[in-house]
Amino acid sequence: MTADRPEPIHDLAHLGIHGILSPTPDETIGYFHDLLGMDVVAQDGDSTYLRSFNTYETWTIKITAADRAGLEYVSWRMDSPQALERRVRWLEENGFAGRWVDPDQGIGPAYEFLDPDGHPFRIYWETEVYVAPDDKKPVIPTNFQAYVGRGANVKHLDHVNLLARDVRRCRQFWEDGFGIRTYETILMPDGVKEAGAWMSSTLQGHELIYTAEKTTGSGRLHHFAYAVESREEVLRAADIMADARIYIEAGPSKHTAIQGFYLYTREPGGNRIEVANGGYFRFAPDAETYVWTADEWKLKPGWGAPIPPEFHVYGTPVVEELAEDAAQVPVLGPADL
Amino acid sequence: MTADRPEPIHDLAHLGIHGILSPTPDETIGYFHDLLGMDVVAQDGDSTYLRSFNTYETWTIKITAADRAGLEYVSWRMDSPQALERRVRWLEENGFAGRWVDPDQGIGPAYEFLDPDGHPFRIYWETEVYVAPDDKKPVIPTNFQAYVGRGANVKHLDHVNLLARDVRRCRQFWEDGFGIRTYETILMPDGVKEAGAWMSSTLQGHELIYTAEKTTGSGRLHHFAYAVESREEVLRAADIMADARIYIEAGPSKHTAIQGFYLYTREPGGNRIEVANGGYFRFAPDAETYVWTADEWKLKPGWGAPIPPEFHVYGTPVVEELAEDAAQVPVLGPADL
Amino acid sequence: MTADRPEPIHDLAHLGIHGILSPTPDETIGYFHDLLGMDVVAQDGDSTYLRSFNTYETWTIKITAADRAGLEYVSWRMDSPQALERRVRWLEENGFAGRWVDPDQGIGPAYEFLDPDGHPFRIYWETEVYVAPDDKKPVIPTNFQAYVGRGANVKHLDHVNLLARDVRRCRQFWEDGFGIRTYETILMPDGVKEAGAWMSSTLQGHELIYTAEKTTGSGRLHHFAYAVESREEVLRAADIMADARIYIEAGPSKHTAIQGFYLYTREPGGNRIEVANGGYFRFAPDAETYVWTADEWKLKPGWGAPIPPEFHVYGTPVVEELAEDAAQVPVLGPADL
Amino acid sequence: MTADRPEPIHDLAHLGIHGILSPTPDETIGYFHDLLGMDVVAQDGDSTYLRSFNTYETWTIKITAADRAGLEYVSWRMDSPQALERRVRWLEENGFAGRWVDPDQGIGPAYEFLDPDGHPFRIYWETEVYVAPDDKKPVIPTNFQAYVGRGANVKHLDHVNLLARDVRRCRQFWEDGFGIRTYETILMPDGVKEAGAWMSSTLQGHELIYTAEKTTGSGRLHHFAYAVESREEVLRAADIMADARIYIEAGPSKHTAIQGFYLYTREPGGNRIEVANGGYFRFAPDAETYVWTADEWKLKPGWGAPIPPEFHVYGTPVVEELAEDAAQVPVLGPADL
């Protein structure tokens, strides 16, 4: 906690709107509406926009028909217009120049660029605050809309997990360019490469996660996670998903990294979706990154169910071919993320 | 725990199907369907039958259009056909003769009679086990139907609370005639009359409650209570009810008697409905009734929110005129039930 | 639901006091006191008696120093003195004669006998209701003692799971002799032998479980389970156990059979102990046993973490040698109990 | 969301260490240790330092013997040394000059100053990260210490509520000088004075609250609130507090402002202490303050138990004399904070 560290950057406000692709858009929308409990708020061509009830912006996720599942883009809302301007400048001066894109259903304009693994990101300042129609007005005016009470009843986006061939490089990109805080990383057995990194722009333990890509793909999505009110609601979500015959890949259980309580399913289009609660908060502005060695990680401290091997390979779009150096990526053991 | 006490009677199996009347049947059905999360399973004339997802019988409650709210009947399923026969005999030999009524949507035949305050009760043996249609088949075959995940998501009937001019007489009727166990009573200041009695045929702390009627009415309903999985779900139900602009009369909080966690609302037709979780179990077959004196009760041990005075007067059908001796019925203080 | 079935027997009131053996009694007592939150209430020679705060009897479990872990005895409190007498008569007339044993710390006299696998059981009527000392008086007089708030804070015994070479025979012993209700069984691939049976004397989904013994041992204990208030408290117990470096064998997760939420640990003496919440209630007095075929069971419907193979072999006392026909006992798959 | 708003200030990291005074220090320490579950970590003269298990700093609260209850000081940890310097400069240039005080048990140096109502605040940068002794090492190294599992088991300081004769002036002091975000205020009937203001330096709905002082006192403490993991744990805390015969002033229930779930007790020395969970998060960096008119506030939207009138008057040190203009301060109605 020395006095000569650079001052923290606070230009990212929070993870924002995001888009996924689905080869079965109707079923995917059904999953988000009926099972996650989101509301459809707009439609535009092949895209449908839905919102979770505790999102202050007009919409949360955009689902677009496509020939295969995957990520359309992730975004960050910025802390101020000046912050947006500063970060665009940094991107352009550091070889990550992108392009301005028009507002998407009223949110933006946004600057779109690629992270080092090729995932499209957007950053924006302008947004509209949701105004509920009369039949969805909440009784407490500080809420954004009436309680939905349908399915898993997710509140808002919690975090996103992307796959990356070079986790370390992606992490450093966000640290250098955006001042993001990294709370945990896991080293590979070589002691240099990274198997995972958990990052946040707020005191929440994770907003952005990278884990190692083991296939020949790039720019792939591991999962989006939506928050529910309590661990009880994660358990409840498992009942809902099981009876709806949705594939449950892992959980409900608790992660060792960040210690969130999780349930992993695949929406009908193939994208992995988590229903999440908790994860620690890091109040210290100078919290040091906890670096797990590969050996230490294998000891699996704490509790938590075993995670199936596919959890470390599967992503969208689906890529079958393993990378040549995939063997070097440790097959993490039980309870390993 | 002497050896010469009579053997316990186990002729009641559990509270069963029940019916309420509503002057606004459509809105009442909407409340049970949308907000409590029950499914409509049958319709017959002015009556609609709904089931909660964890009920093994084909239906749970029957809502019938009427000019005013109130109770149609409460029932018990009996432990065996012989038990049914024995209890009918007891009723007929002890001045409570009733009549046999035809099966109601496949459940029954039932013997209908009145308790000492005039509430219609039915007892029956024959019932059908619910078989879920294909789109509601639960993934675990020991469940009765797929998880509903709509609104408060009630599981099954928990208990019923009736108002009675003479609580003591009603209590003794059930003890003498059916061997019901009484876990708690509250004495009025005269030390003789009773302000409330909590009874059960199982280890659950309450199935049948009588509390003192303060109006000139009789045969009135105080409330039906439906169980949810956890206290978290009672809190969640409060969010749902508040945003649906349903009148919340009391709670969420915890009762002193039996110690259940409660939320009291009025369904649009005016009947008071509780969403409930918990309450202690009494494992001892010879558990003694705990008798609260009026003075002890006023000390309000434990925690729990104040209950509004109307809670002790309002019932359905609504009766405005207070009984002459209503003043003798203690206006119970905060946290008093 | 025919009328000619024999009437249900209600002679068992609930699982009662029980004893375990420990080669490390001090550490075992420490586990029950510090981590489960029980209080020590008596000491007698090599035996220490502890109670959980929601037990109405004076004590719950007796821990006795021994050269190896295992079961001392399990017991049932009976529904009446007449019920005790009736069941003793049945035992004596059916080849299971045992002997009367003196009260154990005031509870009893008890009739001790062996089940078909050799586990010692006791049945008794006389018991003393716990009277809390002044510093443990609960504020609500219908509680038995003040809330403990230490460690996992278990309420009372929930169920016991015993290993048996012949599950079917043990199940039939209890059904024939005591009228116990069997809610679920699992068949072995031969379609005749049973891999498990879940039984209860009340509406609780399980009080007594038998699962298949795969070693050459007999009379072995699989686990005792203690109830906590909520699934949240099972999760909390896992944090407590993990940080206390207690071995967590499985969970927290949810069983398919009876659907209880579980955490399995080994107390320092080696006995498996579960912290449990939930499991369904069976209200129907004529609920049919659900019989799982081996094939159906392997489909693992619902959700729940994989259970390690040792869960199906380990018991106390520890026996290393597998039975010759152990291979015929299916190694149940993930989420299999 | 215009582009010409000044950029947000991020100089406050989080509420930090704090001190209270107690006329009965032993009993107060007993309350914090036994009932809240904190550990004693240091002793210095009349002061005892305790920590909650999820605090990353070496200690959380300092309890000092005094002739009456009250606040010793509240503090903020700053976001950087530069942030500390900037804020000291602002204070000195704006008429709030204070003084530098030596580190308190290793935390600091700190700059101490008074808010407009006379409450002592400290701001500091330097702090030590807690290193658990061997017997309290957590099994997961990203935790700060092993799970305590004693009493209410509080995690960390959640927020502080101070009383102020001029809420508006205090609020503006923090907004102008520190860029704190105000999420809600309540206007008095005159439409100008404020009855309460809820402020935060993070996305948490409240860290610092001011409510109207109705007595002739100043610099008084309304309450400190400590966070627990879930609403279930707030309910559990109520059981613990009730059985320990601690005075429960209000709750468990849910506030309308910020919507946190609360339990208010008085520690034996007289200071009001809250066990808290939840409250909304405000992700929007430009979230507008919600301003409740007095009339709107009286409609009590949502649910929540009535709060006793003393809640709006009592603070520490205790002052009996009401201010002359106390009548102008609305006696807020049920569920009113």
TrEMBL record, chains A, B, C, D:
It comes from Microbacterium album. This is Catechol 2,3-dioxygenase. It comes from the Bacteria. Residues 11-126, 156-278 form the VOC domain. Gene3D superfamilies: 2,3-Dihydroxybiphenyl 1,2-Dioxygenase, domain 1. InterPro entries: Glyas_Bleomycin-R_OHBP_Dase (IPR029068), Glyas_Fos-R_dOase_dom (IPR004360), GlyoxalaseI/FosfomycinResist (IPR050383), VOC_core (IPR037523).
